[in-house]
């Protein structure tokens, strides 16, 4: 097996480090001297290499070295959007720590270590988990310049035992110098922060966003030897964004070590200039937005009640222009079509931002990393992600802000075709609707299109480059005309003004967009596990009712094509394979027997929760609790995986019994 040059040098470096650690060179010198004294005849002038190797082998030196060296591959901690070279892991048997290296000697790296946490006071009374006991866990997710990492889960505690290291490659993608090692001055101009998101997972697998923090790493450039330690205070999210949730101890180290460090004064000056420049751009945009809003209200005073959303608060309570939440996002080879992208967004969980007490909806538009790591979010998070993906596929996509029935605020996505076709995409369900406007001036007798979509009013539309306020006499969606170039119907914001604060790299306060990660779920194994759990739950439930349970494995298998067909239809809006399924069932069910089936769909993998939901359906309960002669039950589970370990879980319960 031949290794590429960079791998060979990497391997040599690792072996050299271990040989130095074991002082192998010193031991070889001792054995060489001893061998010369004891075994070299007076007439011999030199030892051959074979003689030396025999001596080393006889004294066990070679065996010791081979025992100590153990190369494995491991990529649990690193989630990568594509398939770059695998990290080589080096295990030292004297140490419990796994040291991972993926070093290209021509590139510069930032080694970020998380060395424990403290003052997570919400978990002050948390009991120490027993060995093997399921408990709530913390997971730290990181994103830096298109690289994503995830820590090992640690039990929730007042002082969580984080012990993880992340090797972040620092590189310049622009200016044509991506292959050169970045020096101190170059790295000082890289303003991307390390985005850290802390997720809590409870014993039922439900996730909660605990904190979202942007780490300014460039202080290490001005520290002695390119090494510095930081204490990072994590603040809560949403209504608790001013409350501390805990502290992380972090160590930063540049690798290879910097030949020349900058003075701390230079680093601080650069950071201050960037903050000043960003603040000025944001101030000018705010002045412009206020002027635009005044002009919008002058068109019609009733515009004051329309949902024209120019700014939105993120999870840290910071107001940002809504256009900054959108960016064309390419899914690589993880998603093939816009409709598949819509299905992916649809299977991410829906959860409104938590609010303490009553008083209406709490606003919280999450940054993309927080949304993806939590695997659930509000309708705005779904719409922003879907719009970004559709833009990545080359469509003209916008997020629409308006209301549904009963005046409930809502966000959805709209695409405008080159032929003028306007399509609404509901990001929470994956449904698509063609918009055909109703003409209010038509005769009452004339036939008008009946809208199938659930949207009632629309206040504004926006994407990463444009923001348009609806200034038509009525904001009703069904009579709205989506000619976005007609300024008498849609009042645009200056694209230059939007670009000044929302274009990539325009300000240092914009969170960079992370890439999508492939699923880590094994669909076959997970399907099987859920199916086994459901069989046990059904058998226990029937036993409580005094009923016996007989499973028909062949019938269970025959349900698979139906589940695959349902998912295919959700993804493509095309129904296929139903005829074969029905024919197979007719052949499998004996004459004089009745077949009943009940399919249901979930976006989580908790079998007990899914079973409880199924029992609430009278039709499903009738199948599970079926009584009669020759009752045979069947259940089939099919898990379809999507990026970010999102999944669509299809379950079908069925029974056959004598009529």
Automatic annotation (TrEMBL):
Span-the-membrane segments of this chain are none
Cite the CEP76 N-terminal domain residue spans from the record: 10-69
Q: What is its main location?
A: cytoplasm
Provide the CEP76 C2 domain boundaries.
102-259
Its localization reads:
Cytoplasm, Cytoskeleton, Microtubule organizing center, Centrosome, Centriole
Q: Which GO terms describe its cellular component?
A: centriole
Among InterPro entries, the record links this protein to:
CEP76 (IPR052299), CEP76-C2 (IPR028926), CEP76_C (IPR056288), CEP76_N (IPR056289), CEPT76/DRC7_peptidase-like_dom (IPR056290), Papain-like_cys_pep_sf (IPR038765)
Which PANTHER family would you find in this protein's record? CENTROSOMAL PROTEIN OF 76 KDA
Q: How does it assemble?
A: Interacts with CCP110 and CEP97.
Listed name of the protein: Centrosomal protein of 76 kDa
């Amino acid at each position: 097996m031949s290794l590429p040059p960079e791998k060979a040098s990497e391997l040599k470096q690792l072996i050299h480090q271990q040989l130095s650690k074991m002082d192998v060179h010193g031991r070889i010198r001792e054995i060489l001297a001893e061998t010369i004294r004891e075994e070299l005849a007076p007439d011999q002038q030199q030892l051959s290499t074979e003689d030396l190797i025999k001596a080393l082998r006889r004294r066990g030196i070679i065996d010791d070295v081979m025992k100590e060296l153990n190369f494995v591959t491991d990529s649990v901690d690193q989630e990568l959007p594509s398939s770059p070279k695998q990290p080589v892991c080096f295990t030292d048997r004297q140490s419990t720590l796994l040291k991972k290296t993926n070093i290209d000697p021509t590139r510069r790296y930032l080694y970020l270590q998380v060395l424990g946490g403290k003052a997570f006071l919400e978990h002050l009374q948390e009991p120490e988990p027993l060995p093997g006991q399921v408990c709530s866990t913390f997971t730290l997710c990181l994103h830096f310049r298109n690289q994503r990492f995830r820590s090992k889960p640690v039990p929730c505690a007042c002082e969580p035992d984080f012990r993880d290291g992340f090797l972040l490659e620092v590189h310049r993608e622009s200016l044509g110098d991506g292959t050169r090692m970045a020096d101190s001055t170059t790295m000082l101009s890289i303003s991307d922060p390390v985005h850290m998101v802390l997720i809590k997972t409870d014993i039922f697998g439900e996730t909660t966003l605990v904190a979202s923090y942007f780490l300014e790493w460039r202080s290490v450039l001005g520290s002695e030897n390119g090494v510095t330690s930081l204490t990072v205070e994590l603040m809560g999210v949403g209504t608790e964004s001013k409350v501390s949730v805990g502290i992380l101890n972090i160590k930063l180290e540049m690798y290879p070590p910097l030949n020349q460090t900058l003075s701390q004064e230079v680093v601080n000056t650069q950071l201050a200039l960037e903050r000043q420049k960003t603040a000025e751009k944001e101030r000018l945009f705010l002045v412009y937005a206020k002027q635009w809003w005044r002009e919008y209200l002058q068109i019609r005073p009733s515009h004051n009640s329309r949902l024209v959303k120019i700014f939105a608060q993120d999870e840290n309570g910071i107001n940002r222009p809504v256009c900054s939440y959108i960016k064309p996002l390419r899914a690589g080879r993880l998603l093939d079509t816009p409709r598949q992208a819509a299905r992916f967004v649809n299977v991410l969980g829906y959860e409104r931002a938590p609010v303490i007490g009553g008083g209406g909806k709490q606003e919280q538009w999450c940054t993309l990393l927080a949304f993806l790591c939590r695997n659930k979010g509000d309708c705005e998070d779904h719409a922003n992600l879907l719009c970004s993906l559709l833009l990545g596929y080359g469509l003209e996509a916008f997020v629409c802000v308006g209301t549904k029935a009963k005046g409930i605020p809502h966000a959805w996505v709209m695409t405008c075709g080159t032929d003028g076709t306007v399509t609404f995409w509901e990001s929470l369900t994956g449904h698509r609707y063609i918009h055909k406007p109703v003409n209010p001036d038509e005769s009452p007798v004339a036939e008008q299109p009946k809208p199938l979509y659930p949207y009632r009013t629309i206040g504004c539309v926006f994407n990463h480059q444009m923001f348009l306020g609806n200034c038509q006499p009525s904001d009703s969606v069904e009579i709205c005309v989506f000619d976005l170039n007609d300024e008498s119907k849609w009042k645009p914001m200056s694209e230059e003004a939007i670009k000044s604060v929302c274009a990539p790299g325009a300000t240092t306060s914009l969170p960079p967009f992370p890439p999508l990660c492939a699923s880590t779920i094994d669909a076959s194994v997970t399907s099987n596990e859920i199916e086994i759990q459901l069989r046990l739950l059904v058998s226990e439930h029937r036993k409580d009712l005094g009923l016996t349970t007989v499973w028909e494995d062949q019938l269970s298998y025959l349900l698979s094509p139906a589940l695959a067909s349902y998912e295919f239809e959700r993804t493509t809006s095309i129904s296929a394979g139903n005829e074969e399924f029905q024919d197979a069932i007719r052949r499998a069910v004996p004459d004089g027997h009745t077949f009943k089936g009940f399919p249901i769909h979930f976006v989580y993998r908790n079998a007990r929760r899914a079973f409880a939901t199924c029992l609430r359906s009278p039709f499903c309960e009738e199948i599970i609790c079926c009584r009669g002669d020759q009752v045979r039950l069947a259940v089939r589970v099919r898990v379809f995986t999507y990026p970010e370990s999102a999944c669509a879980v299809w379950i079908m319960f069925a029974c056959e019994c004598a009529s």
